[in-house]
Amino acid sequence: MSDIKDEKVKEIIREKAAEFLERESSNSALITVTNVELMDAGKRALVSFTVFPADKENGALDFAKRKRSEFREVLKRETKLFRLPFVDFRIDLGEKNRQKIDMLSQM
Fold it and tell me: Is pLDDT larger for residue 63 or for residue 2?
């Protein structure tokens, strides 16, 4: 895929993932989608997110992984993506590290 098309697809998936997780979650934690990576020529998408409070991360990740197939159905129903990627979720460790660095630099 071209870079422009990749960016559009990533943005569509990011927006839909944020809406889906907000709508389907129990609201016991704040889930923020931070990034989407496309792999294998757009056949796979990896959605990264952060969770607040941090002690709810494991539960949120388990929830997101359980809901993968439902999210794929949302993409099929609500978007015009030609090729629907297999979607997986992960905690955004890069964002957590950035927050730690910010906190340490303010000391």
Answer: 63
Tokens read off for 36: 């989407």
Among 31, 32, 35, 48, residue whose Cα is nearest residue 6? 35
Place of tokens 């303010």: 106
Pairing mode, if any, of strands 30-39 and 44-52?
Answer: antiparallel
- Domains of the chain by residue range: 3-105
pLDDT above 60: residue 1: no
Percentage above 70 pLDDT, the chain: 99
Token couple for 75:
């993409």
Say if CB 1 and CB 38 are below 8 A apart: yes
3-105 maps to CATH 3.40.50.20: no
